Amino acid sequence: MVTLTPTERIEWLAGQSEVGTARSKLEELLALYEDFLSRTDTSEGELVERFMDEAKRREYFESASRFGDLVFEVLQVFGGATASIGCWSSEPATTFKLSGEL
């Protein structure tokens, strides 16, 4: 797992049958990140120009806020408060079990 990039880890998690409804959150997280990368794949001048546009700036901040919310929600499922009540089993990480879902 440590040899995987962060996005590869999310893709791996999304591919596990045990994640249930959390899969849609993981997929949305990846989609938002991909959208961010495509929006920022331009020159600094173009980015500054885009952020000067109030509508685009608001759109970007809303997307960033949703991304942050999703990261929080996913962490709550896989390593947050539920982890202290047995979110992960004692089995190897490749055969984890969840105690709850999003």
Write a compact overview of the structure shown:
By secondary structure, this protein is mostly helical. Helices cover 61% and strands 0% of the residues.
Description:
The chain has 102 residues and is mainly α. It has one domain (21-95). Helices cover 61% and strands 0% of the residues. The chain has 4 helices and no strands. The longest helix has 25 residues, at 54-78. It is elongated, with a radius of gyration of 17 Å. The two termini are 23 Å apart. Mean pLDDT is 81; it is low at 81-96.
Highlighted features:
61% helix, 102 residues, 4 helices, mainly alpha
Average pLDDT for all residues? 81
Main sheet overview: none
Shape: elongated
Q: Report strand %.
A: under 5%
Number of helices: 4
Termini, distance in Å?
23 Å
- Portion of residues within helices: 55-70%
Uncertain segments: 81-96
Our count of domains comes out at 1
Structural class: mainly alpha
Our Rg estimate from Cα atoms comes to 17 Å
How many individual β-strands? 0
**What is the element string, with H for helices and E for strands?**
HHHH
Quaternary structure state of the chains depicted:
single chain
Topology (SSEs and partners):
Blueprint: H1 6-14, H2 22-40, H3 44-52, H4 54-78
Helix pairs in contact: 1-2, 2-4
